[in-house]
Amino acid sequence: MNSRFEQTLRRLNERHGDAFLTMLTVLLVLLMFVLVPIIAAGSAPTQILAGLVALTLIVGAVTMSGNLTVFVVLLVALVIQVGVAVSRFAGAHSSHHLYLLALAWLMFTVAFGWVVARAVFGPGRVTVHRIVGAVFLYLLIAIAFASLFALLGYFIPNAFSGIAFVDTPRLTGTLFYFSIVTLTSTGYGDLFPVHPIARSLCNLETILGQLYPATLLARLVSLEVVARRP
């Protein structure tokens, strides 16, 4: 049964894998730079659309993976997110929601990152879809660190200056913003780490943000050279 399931996923990935990369990248950009800011501005109905986009991303990751383990990890992440959403809808608000959602997003980015990295850095010709997938992987790094920042803020409330770790829709947008600013080493100075562990995480993200483009370029060039050899 498991082998049939994985074989079906592999066939779908072989036929539509490149197109999936582009589609999922567009959806992730929509989620991070359009829907999350709108939700942070106070638009509650947008949360439903954001949830549907997140669900589509998870389904796409499962289809691309062809791996039952990835499916289980993403399913657990989805169950956690749905459970928190139902709890909130029922009127139950808890500080633990922040911890659970951060954990779910971290599971999502790790599993999804493994899938996309295999598609982007694997052997074969370099296509537009693979380059777009590399952008997708870059954004996943930002989400992963945003999740780590949320977990750190949950356990050490004063780890960051300018970020209030309260379970509100605004927090997600703030963490995404801070993570992207750190990843690109922009450093506006409005938000900054205070605790030593927070500073260490920010340093690590900044280093990854600087090394990733160079590593990506070198890998894509080598793949193209190998693919063009007679």
Question: What does the model show?
Answer:
The protein is mainly α. It has one domain. The protein has 7 helices and 2 strands. The chain has helices at residues 2-40, 46-65, 68-89, 96-121, 128-155, 169-183, 196-228, and strands at residues 160-161, 192-193. It has a two-stranded antiparallel ribbon. Helix 1 (2-40) packs antiparallel against helix 2, helix 5 packs across helix 6 and helix 5 runs antiparallel to helix 7. The longest helix is centred in the first third of the chain and has 39 residues, at 2-40. The N and C termini lie far apart (41 Å). The model has no long low-confidence stretch (mean pLDDT 83).
Short description:
This protein is 80% helix and 2% strand. It is an all-alpha fold and 230 residues long.
